[in-house]
Structures are given as structure tokens and as C-alpha cells.
């Protein structure tokens, strides 16, 4: 036997609607998690990643024992958290003798692990260790520039994947309209060697250049770190094909009442409904029917004087 | 010219504000960390500039907050977060309507009601042709005697609603199979599919469990008085006090501006005493019941004797060893 379950409050219903699959998706949320052991470095990396991503991220503060996505059965708890928080990117930090300062980045598709890449963190410099003009500090949730340099991102399989994951992690919401004054941050990733990537976060100074396009200067605001690629897992081919589908691939709806011709350009038909002049009501107070202000004032005055007279007579 | 060459070298995705330079190589292994960082940042500046060159040349609309440009859709293809919404399968009725060529028509929300000579809503409260508005149902030849036509009508309506609900559930089940349930609906199994028609026995609720626990606690010699209470355990429901002692002093009852003293204790005892000392005191005795009681007692005595014979006698066992000795 089956039972229909529906949300009891309007808010619950709205939340479920937000979480439902959409034709056009705007942005992915990030889930940030700790392993059983985290070094000070990894903890601060997670913390600062959360600060950078604020507004589009959820950070869990408890330690998680049974998250081992590379092993079979180790992703159940992660998938549950993804379902619970509606996040589809995760960053999982851990620290062990075998893999010191470990950061595991991954993506989910339909709340199942899509791909994974594991990086070690070296030469970490915290947000706090940078000194700069605080006016430059990027605003929360602003759209970043993302730069990749180095041929490694084009040739090496792992770095290719890392590039995709970092893009997905940092790009934030996909927007139609952008305020140009709101551009204040950039992420710079450069492949130093086939396994190592230098990542830093910069603020942007827009300087006058004499043209429309301002001259751009970057000021490092941190955090900055080296990412050393360790293990990775590529997405399943079938899942990848499924996940790459967009609403664009579908045929468009036929446009009605619009014609295109080479000579006349675009033209359209407009259907205007009958006006029904006989049925329309006149507005209650048309100008002709209104008493004029002056008249009303006069009348008031008369009444006022009359009452005064009455008072006097009394 | 510079801009064009830049764009040829760099791969720029304005929708994501992303730029990629696949040809950059470090001239020589940088000697210090600082050099490396500076090299990376200068390279990054070039890339950001390349994106900005495109971005700031877009037509913009001025607002009080600053110029706003329209971004093109991103070109880098990234995986979706969730699957594309799946089309909903047609319901049974939709299938039927398609086969028969029945088309949807718009109906007015408000309809003229002949009974009341008014315009009324088509559905809901105070609707057109509402059965509840009809105070009299004319008798028909086919009516069965002794049947309430109003109750019958309610019953039929309930049946119809039940059937519709069943149909709806079936349609939802088909939709769930296609993965196209509306986002706010979940289907949950109420019983195991193996057990079939029978619903699972209901689990004891929180209240009921508490009651049972309280009852179980009284089963010790002290009636659970000295037992340790579990967290959340409730005291047993009925706790002692069967005898009600009436107040010895009289209480006053107000009756039509007079205070009448009422001594309940005195009244009660008086009632009992008057029954005993009254002239017809023998009448309070239920003679039939008394006879029955006496008879029962007699029979018990008789049967008691007979049952004594069946009981093993202690004397026999005691005597037995003596006989063996002899």
C-alpha cells in the first residue's frame, strides 16, 4: 500500500520546489567537511574556503569517521549529507601519515558522487598573513574572475579535471546581468609542474587607462597555497553523458505570430481584443462631475460663518 | 590589434569570467617562492585584463549602482547538478481523452444557480447545485422502505471521493515510476509489499508506551514506590486512594438566598443506621440471594470432603518406610 505525503507548511513546499530538478540551473552549493583528524593547515584551509564561498556553502564542524569516497561503501554518508543540504560540490579535509594535509574535492550528480580529486596542501599562507588596504577587500558573494595558466591544464589528465572542479567550485552562480563595479576578486591557478598547481586569491584594482577598459591591477589578499595532485577518479562515461545534457539540446518552442523575412526584417501580428465601448463604465468621479476646490471652500466658509453667527446669537 | 592577438592566445569564457592560457611556460625554474608568485600574478593580471577587455566593451546600461552589462551564457561545459526534469506521463483520464478526442474547455468560475436565482461559485463552499441546499428529496417508486435518502446521498458522495483518491494515487504511482513526481509529493509505503493487503500492526505511540512502562513498574512488592524512575517514565495511572473520607464538619450550600448546612458524613451514616434499625429491617435483606449463598456454602463443604479423598495423604508416605522395616 502507498501513502501520499505532502508538506504541511507553505515554507516546506517552497523549499522542496527549490530543490527539485530544474531546466536551467544557476549555481551549486558547497559542503565543507572534516575528517577524523585534521591538521591546523587543513582546518584553516577549510575555514577560509568557507569564508570565500560564504552564501553558497555549508560547513559542518563535526568530525566524520566514515567518509572515504575512494573506497566502496565509503560514500554513503557523504551522499546522505549532500541530499540533506542540497549541496553538489564538497571539500573534505583530512590529515594522516600517508597523506598529510589532504583536501578532497568532488562533485555530485543527482546526489551521487560524480568525480573526485585529491590534493595535498603545501606552502599554505592564510588570509590573515596578508597585509593590504582593507578597502580593497572583496565583498561577500561577488562574481570572481578565474584564470588558469600553464600547459599542464591542457595535457595532464588530472590537472584537466582539477581545472574543471576548481572552475565549478569558484564560479558561483551563473548570472545574466553583471554590475561592472562589483568586480573585485580573481582566483589565479597556475600549473607549476605536471602535478603541482599554485592557487591564490587576489583583489582587483581598477585603474584609469584613458579608454573604456580600465587597467587592472591585482593585489594578493590570500589565501594562497600549492595543490599537489594525489588520487583522482574520473566520472563514469554514462553518467558524464547524462550530466552534460542541457536544456539547449532540446528543440525550441515554435514562435507564434512572428515572421522573419530578408527584406522586411522581423514583423509580428498583434491581436487586439474588441474594445466593448458600450459596456465600459465611466469612472465614478470624472472631472465634470467633481466639485471644484474653490466651490467647496466657499461652501465651507459659508457654513462656518453661519455657525459663528449662531454662537454669537446665543 | 593587441586585443585580437590576446584572444587568439587565450581561451576566454566571458560567461564565467574565465580565461585560460595554455601556452605559458615558466622561462626558468624560479629561484625563490616570491619570484614564482610574482610571475604567476603578472600572468594572471594579463588574463584578467583579457576578460575585462571583452567585458567592458559590451553595451552597458547605466544605473545608480553602476554600469550593468548583459553576460553571454558560459561556454565551458560543466556537469549538471541534477537530472533534467522528466516529462510527466499522461494520467488515465488524459489517455482516455486523447483516444476519444475530448478537449479541455475553459469553464466559468461563477455559474447561474436556478434554485436560488443567484450567481454562485462552481466549486467549493456555497456552490451551484449544492446537494446540501436541497431540504426535501422526492420519493421514488424504486426507493426501499426504511432507507434514509440523505444518508444514502452522503454515502454515495464519500464513495465517489474515495474512488477519485484511489485513481489519483494510481496516477502518481505511474508518475513516480517515470521519475516525474511533482516536487512537493512523496510516495511512502505504508506496509511491506510482501504482506500484501494486510497493513502493518501499528507501533505503540509515545503515550501508550509510557502508560505500559508505568504499569509494569507497579509489579514489584512495593508497587514500584522505591524503584528508580527511567528518564521520561510516567507515574502509574491509578495510584491508591479508593476510600473517600467525607468532611466531618458541615459545609454550606446556597439555596435561594439561604444557607443550608449540609453534613454529608452524618447523612451517610444516618442512612446506613436507619436501614438497620428501621421497622421493616428484614426487607433490606435479599432473601433469594441469602438462600443461594447458604446453598453454595453447603455444596462447597460437601465437595470439599470429596476432594480431600483425592489428595495424597501425608500419613501414607510416613507409614511406608515403617512397613518396609517390618
From TrEMBL, chain A:
<dbReference type="GO" id="GO:0005730">
    <property type="term" value="C:nucleolus"/>
</dbReference>
<feature type="compositionally biased region" description="Basic and acidic residues">
    <location>
        <begin position="276"/>
        <end position="289"/>
    </location>
</feature>
<protein>
    <recommendedName>
        <fullName>Ribosome production factor 2 homolog</fullName>
    </recommendedName>
</protein>
<dbReference type="GO" id="GO:0000463">
    <property type="term" value="P:maturation of LSU-rRNA from tricistronic rRNA transcript (SSU-rRNA, 5.8S rRNA, LSU-rRNA)"/>
</dbReference>
<dbReference type="GO" id="GO:0000027">
    <property type="term" value="P:ribosomal large subunit assembly"/>
</dbReference>
<dbReference type="InterPro" id="IPR007109">
    <property type="entry name" value="Brix"/>
</dbReference>
<feature type="domain" description="Brix">
    <location>
        <begin position="28"/>
        <end position="238"/>
    </location>
</feature>
<keyword id="KW-0539">Nucleus</keyword>
<dbReference type="Pfam" id="PF04427">
    <property type="entry name" value="Brix"/>
</dbReference>
<dbReference type="InterPro" id="IPR039770">
    <property type="entry name" value="Rpf2"/>
</dbReference>
<dbReference type="GO" id="GO:0019843">
    <property type="term" value="F:rRNA binding"/>
</dbReference>
<comment type="similarity">
    <text>Belongs to the RPF2 family.</text>
</comment>
<feature type="compositionally biased region" description="Basic and acidic residues">
    <location>
        <begin position="298"/>
        <end position="314"/>
    </location>
</feature>
<feature type="region of interest" description="Disordered">
    <location>
        <begin position="242"/>
        <end position="314"/>
    </location>
</feature>
Automatic annotation (TrEMBL), chain B:
<dbReference type="GO" id="GO:0030687">
    <property type="term" value="C:preribosome, large subunit precursor"/>
</dbReference>
<feature type="compositionally biased region" description="Basic and acidic residues">
    <location>
        <begin position="305"/>
        <end position="315"/>
    </location>
</feature>
<feature type="region of interest" description="Disordered">
    <location>
        <begin position="65"/>
        <end position="91"/>
    </location>
</feature>
<feature type="region of interest" description="Disordered">
    <location>
        <begin position="218"/>
        <end position="252"/>
    </location>
</feature>
<dbReference type="GO" id="GO:0005730">
    <property type="term" value="C:nucleolus"/>
</dbReference>
<protein>
    <recommendedName>
        <fullName>Ribosome biogenesis regulatory protein</fullName>
    </recommendedName>
</protein>
<dbReference type="GO" id="GO:0000447">
    <property type="term" value="P:endonucleolytic cleavage in ITS1 to separate SSU-rRNA from 5.8S rRNA and LSU-rRNA from tricistronic rRNA transcript (SSU-rRNA, 5.8S rRNA, LSU-rRNA)"/>
</dbReference>
<comment type="function">
    <text>Involved in ribosomal large subunit assembly.</text>
</comment>
<feature type="region of interest" description="Disordered">
    <location>
        <begin position="294"/>
        <end position="326"/>
    </location>
</feature>
<dbReference type="Pfam" id="PF04939">
    <property type="entry name" value="RRS1"/>
</dbReference>
<dbReference type="InterPro" id="IPR007023">
    <property type="entry name" value="Ribosom_reg"/>
</dbReference>
<comment type="similarity">
    <text>Belongs to the RRS1 family.</text>
</comment>
<feature type="compositionally biased region" description="Basic residues">
    <location>
        <begin position="316"/>
        <end position="326"/>
    </location>
</feature>
<feature type="compositionally biased region" description="Basic and acidic residues">
    <location>
        <begin position="225"/>
        <end position="236"/>
    </location>
</feature>
<keyword id="KW-0690">Ribosome biogenesis</keyword>
<feature type="region of interest" description="Disordered">
    <location>
        <begin position="122"/>
        <end position="150"/>
    </location>
</feature>
<keyword id="KW-0539">Nucleus</keyword>
<dbReference type="GO" id="GO:0042273">
    <property type="term" value="P:ribosomal large subunit biogenesis"/>
</dbReference>
